[in-house]
Structures are given as C-alpha cells and as structure tokens.
Task: inverse folding
C-alpha cells in the first residue's frame, strides 16, 4: 500500500525536511518496500525513474532522515548498513542464506532486563541471525 505524495510531503515538512522530489521518492521507497534496503539497493531502484539521482544524494538524504529520526539505521553485519522507515520498537532477523532481513515484533512488557536499573536507554537493537522459513523449505525439497 503506497502513501500519497501529499502525505509524504506533509510528513517531511512536519519533520523540518524540505520535501524535494528526490527526498520524497527515497522516503516513499523506504515505506513501500519494507526490505530494509542498502544505499545501493535504493539507488538502483530509483535511478531509472530519477536519472539525475546520485549515490551521494541517497547517502545525504538518508543521513538527513536519520538526523530527523524518521528512519532508523540497521547494522546487523559490520559491512552492511540498511535503513528502515519503521521506527517503532522492533527487532530484526537476517537470513544467512538468502540475505533477507525480516521484522521481528517484541513485547517489551515481557522482557526482563537486568543490570540497567541505574541507566537511561536512548536506543536499543535486537538482531537475530539464522535461516528463514523460505530457505528451510527449499532445503527440505
């Protein structure tokens, strides 16, 4: 389900981001395709539609979105940075076979954290790695 350009434009304005065509397209891609893409994936997906797009523009736009807290950075692997427009509290699972990253929903009310009573948590990340159900089915066949 796509979000209208007007809603994206208004959303960006509410977060003090000038809604340029490229910024709107990059944000729309992030909310439309929940694949937790890399900069290269975003660039490759949009460059045909926006021939003037550069990887630098994608990097700079994503940094602007991060700075304004409308997306989050995912670094499950040290050499791979991915982006997620869903900024709600959730975790991620990366399949080590196909490379796909899935959302994992957490019930924070049932999590027991010990040793953090005297701390303020500003952000948290929960990552799992393994084999996804699709790859497990492939191995059975």
Result:
């Amino acid at each position: 389900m796509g979000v209208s350009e007007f809603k994206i434009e208004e959303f960006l304005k509410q977060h003090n981001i000038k809604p340029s065509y490229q910024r709107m397209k990059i944000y729309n891609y992030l909310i439309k395709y929940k694949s937790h893409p890399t900069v290269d994936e975003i660039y490759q997906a949009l460059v045909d539609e926006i021939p003037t797009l550069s990887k630098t523009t994608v990097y700079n736009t994503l940094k602007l979105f991060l700075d304004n807290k409308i997306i989050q950075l995912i670094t499950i692997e040290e050499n791979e940075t991915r982006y997620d427009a869903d900024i709600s509290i959730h975790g991620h699972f990366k399949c080590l076979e196909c490379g796909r990253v899935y959302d994992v929903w957490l019930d924070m009310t049932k999590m027991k954290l010990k040793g953090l009573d005297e701390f303020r948590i500003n952000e948290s990340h929960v990552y799992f790695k393994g084999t996804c159900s699709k790859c497990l089915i492939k191995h059975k066949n």
Summary: The chain has a mean pLDDT of 91. The chain has two domains: 5-84, 91-140. The two ends are 33 Å apart (CA to CA).
